[in-house]
Amino acid sequence: MSEEPKSALHRPSELETSGHVFLKPVLPSLYVGAATGACGAAYGNIAGTLIQTSSPLAYTSLAATQWFTAGSTFFYCRSVLLSGPLSRDSGLHKVAASGIAGSCSGAVASAFLPRGSLVTGSIMLGVAAALSQAGLNTMEGSTPFSGMASGITSRIAALSPMKSLSDKEYEDLLRDKLLKVDVEIAVLDDQIADLRAAHEQYSQKGASRTRPG
């Protein structure tokens, strides 16, 4: 009886969290889309003038809409991915999020182009976004595969018979070796003492034999 109310109480919080992940990037995505749309309008105006289209205004509007949808889609998808399944603290996750968002943005932008360019646009923009993010990670000093490399390095170090020692461990190791050396020196001293005693006994016996009877 007590489990059902608990689950009912937990469900709204999970829904609110997931809804927050999807709704929070909407407004910033529109701002980014407006900025990219302005760049697209400028590009469309210049390109329409250079190629001398029959309707420069329509060409400019189409370019602005294309850039707006591409920019807003990229920012929204990347923000959702980094707020949900992926982490902003991982360089590899940033590259993956940028690549996926770039593919989605490329698909949306390719919808304004002739048929057959959907897959090509998705791949090209996805690869370009992933490479750009990898370059930014390198400039920031964090390589996208640093976490993977550190994990592989730690595994190799665990399998290796050699390991790095702390100062205390190194001191204890030297102390053990010194104790072993002291023991070996003590054994050698005992052996030398036995040899000297045997030599003295042999000398005394030889001297007693050489005395005249």
Automatic annotation (TrEMBL):
It comes from the Eukaryota. PANTHER family: CHROMOSOME 7, WHOLE GENOME SHOTGUN SEQUENCE (PTHR41390), NADH-UBIQUINONE OXIDOREDUCTASE 213 KDA SUBUNIT (PTHR41390:SF1). This is Uncharacterized protein. It comes from Cladophialophora chaetospira.
